[in-house]
Amino acid sequence: MPCPCQSHQAYGDCCQPFHLGHQTPQTAEQLMRSRYCAYTLKNIPYIVATTVPSQQLLLDVDAMTQWAESTQWAGLEVLSHRPLGKLHSLVEFNAFFIEEDECKAHHEHSLFVNIHDKWYFVDPTVSLPTQKQPCVCGSGKKFKHCCGAYLA
Ligand SMILES: [Zn+2]
Ligand SMILES: [Zn+2]
User: Fold this and answer.
1) Cα(11)–Cα(85) distance, rounded to whole angstroms?
2) Helix axes 28-40, 61-70, angle to 10 degrees
3) Can you give the pTM of this predicted structure?
């Protein structure tokens, strides 16, 4: 089947190896695509596993599951992929969905951080450290000098 992330590749050649754990996304954009794709396939464990480890227990898995199940996804458009130094990256995208017979877009800038050669999503909707506390990514830096600097 064509990959739901709309890369125009087959699922088996695109996001599936990431979902099965056979490969690791090499870029933040690949991770973002594979997370969107996981939402369309209702693969919530993948969404959890690709969120920054310190945030995983804070995620509302029930709400995520309900959202994935109730949403009629209509496609993905990656607008930009902006590396910020070596360890951070911002991906801007539109995720399209159908609501009341209309196609709507969810527009987002997502922040990703690289921890030990693996990309993770930094979720801005769960409670975050204060500016002076250690960063969520475990870098040992203050939040404001690390991931916090890129979250609007
Ligand atoms: Zn894909
Ligand atoms: Zn950080």
Assistant:
1) 30
2) 70
3) 0.95
